């Protein structure tokens, strides 16, 4: 069974503080899990894992087996084309794919809500205190407006053409979330004002998505990026990539995910896809074009 990847469109970071965020599924990128009967439970994967990540994956498989009361042993075969540590939700995708595959193999027929709840618990093994947005958008495979662990599905009237480009390495999500928390604790009033601004942008974006207003959506992405700059979550490279794609005709652009490196996203029309891709090619060798329905 497979599980897709995701990208955050609006509201990253402030979602950790109970504000809303919008995320979309990316079906072109996915984790696939297959199970073979075996004497002991073990795994094989094309993922490049260091020793501690291997330990976490063993822990994750054991955790899911225990929670689903699975006694049988399996060789767990995992393949993925999702770049890791880039904001594509690779760990949530892995958890959802594992849970779906065990559910199918053992005829458990787990409903989506249960898959999502279990994937959220599994996410804590990787991320400490995740907001829950990754496991939710990946479990439902729909564009979601997410707040306080509750997801609203957003009906989409127009497909979104996104170009996602990686600006290079970034610190771990856990690290950046903790640093923002520290800055927030020292000046709550200032940060709450910026969070309010992002909340307003995200709510307007939900409406713009529902109505298929791409020009407005692009403008809101630019505003969200500015607010993330004020939170010191961008980087020089992310900023120049965002301004260059706007010059090349994108509706709008912003960093996506935990920031200080990693991905930026640009919203484009059919006529600007090539120009925007060209503009990004001098900054990134990891550029994906995706269509969100
Ligand atoms: O790690 P990423 O790029 O998927 O982004 C994490 C999003 C945050 O809002 C920063 C953290 C969270 O748990 O939602």
Map the helices and strands.
Blueprint: E1 2-10, E2 21-37, E3 42-45, H1 51-67, E4 74-80, H2 90-105, H3 112-127, H4 133-140, E5 144-147, E6 150-153, E7 160-166, H5 173-186, H6 188-211, H7 214-230, H8 236-247, E8 252-255, E9 263-268, H9 273-281, E10 287-292
Parallel strand pairs: 3-4
Antiparallel strand pairs: 1-2, 2-4, 2-5, 5-6, 7-9, 7-10, 8-9
Helix pairs in contact: 1-2, 1-3, 2-3, 2-4, 3-4, 5-6, 6-7, 8-9
(3R)-3-hydroxy-3-methyl-5-(phosphonooxy)pentanoic acid binds at residues 8, 12-13, 15-16, 87, 89, 130-131, 133-134, 173, 177, 257-258.
Note the total helix count.
9
Distance between the termini: 21 Å
Low-confidence region ranges:
none
Please identify the structural class as seen in this structure.
alpha+beta
Radius of gyration: 19 Å
Q: What is the element string, with H for helices and E for strands?
A: EEEHEHHHEEEHHHHEEHE
Describe the largest sheet: 6 strands, mixed
Describe this structure in words.
This protein is of the alpha+beta class. It is about 45% helix and about 25% strand. The chain has helices at about 50-65, 90-105, 110-125, 135-140, 175-185, 190-210, 215-230, 235-245, 275-280; strands spanning about 1-10, 20-35, 40-45, 75-80, 145, 150-155, 160-165, 250-255, 265-270, 285-290. Strand 3, helix 1 and strand 4 (about 75-80) form a beta-alpha-beta unit. Helix 3 runs antiparallel to helix 4. The chain is globular. It starts with a strand and ends with a strand.
């Amino acid at each position: 069974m497979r599980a897709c990847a995701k990208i955050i469109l609006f509201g990253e970071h402030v979602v950790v503080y109970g504000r809303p965020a919008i995320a979309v599924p990316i079906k072109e990128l996915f984790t696939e899990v297959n199970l073979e009967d075996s004497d002991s439970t073990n795994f094989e994967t094309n993922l490049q894992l260091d020793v501690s990540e291997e330990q976490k994956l063993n822990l994750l498989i054991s955790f899911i087996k225990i929670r689903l009361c699975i006694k049988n042993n399996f060789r767990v075969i995992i393949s993925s084309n999702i770049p890791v540590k880039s904001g594509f939700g690779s760990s949530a995708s892995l958890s959802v794919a594992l849970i779906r595959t065990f559910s199918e193999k053992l005829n458990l027929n787990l409903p989506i809500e249960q898959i999502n709840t279990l994937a959220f618990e599994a996410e804590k093994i990787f991320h400490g205190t995740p907001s829950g947005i990754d496991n939710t958008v990946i479990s439902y495979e729909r564009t979601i407006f997410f707040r306080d662990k509750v997801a609203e599905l957003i009906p989409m009237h127009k497909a979104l053409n996104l170009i996602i480009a990686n600006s290079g390495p970034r610190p771990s999500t856990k690290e950046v979330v903790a640093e923002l928390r520290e800055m927030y604790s020292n000046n709550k009033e200032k940060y709450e004002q910026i969070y309010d601004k992002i909340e307003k942008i995200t709510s307007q974006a939900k409406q713009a998505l529902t109505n298929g207003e791409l020009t407005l959506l692009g403008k809101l992405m630019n505003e969200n990026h500015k607010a993330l700059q004020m939170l010191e979550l961008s980087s020089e490279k992310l900023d120049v990539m965002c301004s260059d794609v706007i010059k090349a005709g994108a509706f709008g652009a912003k960093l996506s995910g935990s920031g200080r490196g990693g991905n930026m996203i640009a919203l484009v029309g059919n006529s600007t896809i090539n120009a925007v891709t060209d503009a990004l090619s001098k900054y990134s060798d990891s550029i994906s074009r995706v269509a969100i329905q």
